[in-house]
UniProtKB/TrEMBL annotation, chain A:
<dbReference type="InterPro" id="IPR002347">
    <property type="entry name" value="SDR_fam"/>
</dbReference>
<dbReference type="InterPro" id="IPR036291">
    <property type="entry name" value="NAD(P)-bd_dom_sf"/>
</dbReference>
<keyword id="KW-0276">Fatty acid metabolism</keyword>
<keyword id="KW-0560">Oxidoreductase</keyword>
<dbReference type="InterPro" id="IPR057326">
    <property type="entry name" value="KR_dom"/>
</dbReference>
<comment type="subunit">
    <text>Homotetramer.</text>
</comment>
<comment type="function">
    <text>Catalyzes the NADPH-dependent reduction of beta-ketoacyl-ACP substrates to beta-hydroxyacyl-ACP products, the first reductive step in the elongation cycle of fatty acid biosynthesis.</text>
</comment>
<dbReference type="InterPro" id="IPR050259">
    <property type="entry name" value="SDR"/>
</dbReference>
<dbReference type="Pfam" id="PF13561">
    <property type="entry name" value="adh_short_C2"/>
</dbReference>
From TrEMBL, chain B:
<dbReference type="InterPro" id="IPR009081">
    <property type="entry name" value="PP-bd_ACP"/>
</dbReference>
<keyword id="KW-0276">Fatty acid metabolism</keyword>
<dbReference type="InterPro" id="IPR003231">
    <property type="entry name" value="ACP"/>
</dbReference>
<dbReference type="InterPro" id="IPR006162">
    <property type="entry name" value="Ppantetheine_attach_site"/>
</dbReference>
<keyword id="KW-0275">Fatty acid biosynthesis</keyword>
<protein>
    <recommendedName>
        <fullName>Acyl carrier protein</fullName>
    </recommendedName>
</protein>
<keyword id="KW-0444">Lipid biosynthesis</keyword>
<feature type="modified residue" description="O-(pantetheine 4'-phosphoryl)serine">
    <location>
        <position position="37"/>
    </location>
</feature>
<feature type="domain" description="Carrier">
    <location>
        <begin position="2"/>
        <end position="77"/>
    </location>
</feature>
Amino acid sequence: MFDLTGRKALVTGATGGIGGAIARALHQQGAIVTLSGTRRSALEELAASLGERVHIVEANLSDKDSVEALVPAAEAAMDGLDILVNNAGVTRDNLFMRMKDEEWDTVIAVNLTAAFRLSRAAVKGMMRRRHGRIVNIGSVVGSTGNPGQGNYAASKAGLIGMTKALAAEVASRNITVNCVAPGFIESPMTDVLNEKQREGILGTIPMGRLGQGDEIASSVVYLASTEAAYVTGHTLHVNGGMAMF
Amino acid sequence: MSDVADRVKKIVVEHLGVDAEKVTDNANFIDDLGADSLDTVELVMAFEEEFNVEIPDDAAETIVTVGDAIKFLEKNAA
């Protein structure tokens, strides 16, 4: 089950906590993986730990030209692209009334617009090959909202809508487009929480713990697999029960 | 047959997987060649790439037969 031998995958934000776990899991299932991120040394470190079947393409997802170049570079490196994981994300938290345009724009650009451009580019080749998997990494916050994260919540809710629209457009070509929406996961993004915040959050999670990157990665592996061929336009919530839909 | 016509027909054959003799000037992409709406978008994008020209959405809508595509590209491609 869930064998990805020979599948070619691109993971953005591969040096992040969740992105690294996703890249590792896809690779473990046999996929050829292109790691993308902004930090060269971290990408190289991850690539070295994975060994064979790994490529690196640096990209700054807040830069349009860099985004436009990413899919062609990954396709050239791997001779195709079967699985795109739009994982890269940033936060610029601020209370709504205090939020700067720049904080809004940066989050929308990286989390939503880059995913749009990468998906648009990836779908071209997937249409021709009559096969493809796009997995967008959303967030529980895209469905529930969260104070201080108006920009982030909007970008993640936007991903869910985009996922459904694109899924409907390309379903006839055996391309599925889905979303995985993590709750609170142990990662650099949640390491910044102080003890009090952490306790407060744990109180809202029936499972009583934060999630692990691996637990997101296994959901991505499933959606990328042949076994999930009939699942499209879906948002899979992986959040320990903190929000149920 | 013009060079443009040759190139257009080659693209249509490749993209839709139909026999070359079916790809006549009068052939309608959807009714005669079995294309669906996504195929027509793919064809337009392939024409754009081959002829290095931009086909605006309103022009693309008027391209319903192979002949329409040839005429448009003969007029607009460099």
